[in-house]
Amino acid sequence: MTTSFDALLELALVGLYVMDSARLLYADEFVYLEVGGRWKPGGLGPSVELMGRNLWVPNPLIPGHVVLRLCWPGNAGHEEPGELASLYALVRALNPLRYLTVGLFSLLIVGVPIALSRYGSDLAVMALVSLVYLTILAMLVVSYRRRRVLDLSGAAFAKIAFDSLVCPPLALNLVPKLSSRSAVRTDALIVGRHLLDTGGYQDLLTALSKRLERELGGETEGTDRHSALEVHRLRLEQELSKAVAAD
User: Fold this and answer.
1) Within this chain, do residues 153 and 201 fall inside the same structural domain, yes or no?
2) What is the distance between the alpha carbons of residues 247 and 203, in angstroms, rounded to a whole number?
3) 201, 96: one domain
């Protein structure tokens, strides 16, 4: 195989993986993502706007991260009974998939280009492709067996399985896809107090305050929406004061 073809194939693998990992978030949405046992907020800074939504792309060098998609202040003050326990159960159910994702990343993004450039034989490439598909099948088996905890319907599983088998780079995003499907109904600040460390929670409050300031700048004073945003801004200030005092 030619060097140019090898390079194009590698770019295609990485490009499909990154494009599939991107999320278009509404103006009141952001994410919590868990990497290495630590949670942090994402999707709150300035970003590219596409189709009226904000583009968020996670770090492609850290595969298998758990992503929770939340909105604020849409559900401010609401706490869904038992939801936090369900979120922890979801993360535990995804742990085996995360290890398999790291293996798949090594095979697909690192192993395939090396096999093509250094060995170039059909046998070596076919052996590596077989390992890729065996890993994907293992991921799908784990997902199916844990479908109740993951709240995964038969139709949803069939779509994920089809996408992963037809286009293996998409399987690298199986964990964030499964975790972000869960609709978090509890107030994002309540969730943040449980998941984030003190510094992360302060960063969240600061970023949300900046977002509200931008929204307030585009609203006419005296309108119902302006008044509602002011209430939320004051709550953020109070929460930030408490967080700083507790630090």
Assistant:
1) no
2) 13
3) no
